[in-house]
Structure prediction request, 196 residues.
Amino acid sequence: MKQPTSGGILFVGSSIFRQWTNVVEMMAPLPALNRAFGGSQTSDQLARFDQVVLPYQPKIIVYYCGSNDLKAGDTPEDPAAIFARFHSFSIRVRQMYPTPHLVFISSTRSPDRVLRWTQVDHYNALARAYCAATVGHTFIDVNPALVDAAGSPRVELYKTDRLHFNPPAYLAFTDLIKPVLERIWRESSTAESSRN
Prediction:
């Protein structure tokens, strides 16, 4: 059995990433790998950390998870509790050697979750502040690319479920995410060269 490629850029999280089926091509020539799985919540990312993250020893981890937590059940979960599980994920990342750079992609303000946008915004705000204060962490907000000039969701970017995305949305994601990954990759490679 072929061993997984290590030292690249690992995309993890829920179906927003799992359905990004051409992420490897869109991130090229950066070495990307997608190991997101549908329906996952932040607890699943923790439970499968050893299976999904460790075998690949990534240089960069790109994380999208939390929106399923926010929708689960009739009553929204406290965003602070969801963030706490991301924080636990971050701690596990920082215990790895060499330590990957962790990139948090904001939860989206999708049309199907308008009633929970306050919780989405709270979760994103917690993650943004944490990433700003934590070495080796970056927060990327994709929501500005998903709304029109009036701030309303661009419904043409969404599938009929009003949650998952049509291909043009992933082009917008690429425009936001790839330049950041290119910069982090260059900085990481330069630092690695100076150590050797």
Notes: The two ends are 31 Å apart (CA to CA). The chain has one domain: 9-195. The chain has a mean pLDDT of 92. Residues 167-195 form the longest helix (29 residues).
